[in-house]
Amino acid sequence: MIAENSLIDILFRVENVLLIFKIGFTLFAILYFVFSLIVISQVRLMTETVMTEGGSLLRALSILHAGFALTVVILFIGFF
Amino acid sequence: MQFSIFPALFDKPSKIRFDQQEADESVELFLRKHGITNVPWILITLVGFLIPPFALWADVALEINLLSNVPNSILAGGIIVFYLLLLAYVIENFLFWYFNIYIVTNKHIVDINYDSLLSRKVVEVELVDVESQSADIKGVIRQLFNFGDVIVETAAERLRIEFIDVPKPDFVADRIQDLSKSEHGSSNP
Asked: Is B77 close to A25, i.e. CB distance below 8 A?
C-alpha cells in the first residue's frame, strides 16, 4: 500500500506530469511529420497522374508544410 | 448561381494533361465536385479555429478557472496539437476535393478516385463503350447552384461511372453524348 501510494505520488508530481505531456506532444508531432511526408508523396503521385497549372504550387506547399511539421517537432523537443 | 472560388469545370482546357493520355487525344472536359460542396468542412474549420480562443475567454469570463490552472507549457502544447489536427483535417479535405477528378476526352472517360492519403484508383472507359448517360439534380442546394450527378452506363463489363456533384450536369451529359456519338460514327463508318 505504501509502495502504491509512493508510485502515485511520483507519477503526479508536477515535473513528471509535465514530462508525460512533453513525451505525448513530441510523439504526436513526430506522427504529424510522418503524415506530412505521406502528403508530399501523395501530392507528387497525383500531380504526376494529372498535370495541371496548380500542380507545382501544390507540391511546393506540401514541402513547406513538411518543413513546418518538422519545426513543430523541434519546438516540442526543445522548448517544452 | 456562380461559385467560382474553387473552379470545378474546365471546358477544353489547354494546359491540363494526364499520364495515360494518348498522343492524338485531347481533354474536352475536366471536372471536380462543385466548389459549394467544400462549404461544410470550411465551416467546421472556421468553428474549430475559434474554439481555443473562445475556451480561454470563457474560462476567464465565466470564472471556471479550469484552463488557467493548467501550466502554460501544457496549455500551449495542447493548443498547438489542436491546431495541427485542424490543419490535417483541412489538408485531407482539400486534397480529397482537388484530386477526385473526372476527365472527358475525345476518346475516353477517366475517373480518378482519391479515396484517402494511401489509395488511388483510376477507371478509364472508351467513349465507344458508352451506352447511356443521364444527369440527376436532386435537392434545393443542387438546383440553386446547378450541380448534380452524371451517370454514365457503359457496355464494358456493365461498368457504371458516376460523376458526383459536378457543375452543370445537363451540359456535361450532353457533351458526353455528343462525343460518344461522334466516336461511334468514326468507329462505324
From this structure: yes
Residue of A33, A36, A49, A51 to mutate, testing the B interface (most B Cβ within 10 Å of its Cβ): A49
Q: What is the pLDDT of residues A1-22, one digit of tens each?
A: 556 667 667 666 777 888 889 9
- Sequence-distant (6+) residues with CB within 8 A of B34 are B3, B8, B145, B147, B165, B166, B167
pLDDT digits (tens, 9 = 90+) for B52-97: 999 999 999 988 888 888 888 899 999 999 999 999 999 999 999 9
Integer Cα distance of B86 and B92 in angstroms: 10
Q: Does residue B112 belong to the interface with chain A, where contact is any CB pair within 8 Å? A: yes
Cα torsion for A66, A71, A75, A76, to the nearest 10°?
Answer: 20
Which of A22, A25, A50 comes nearest B18 by C-beta? A50
pLDDT tens sequence across A29-47: 999 999 999 999 999 988 9
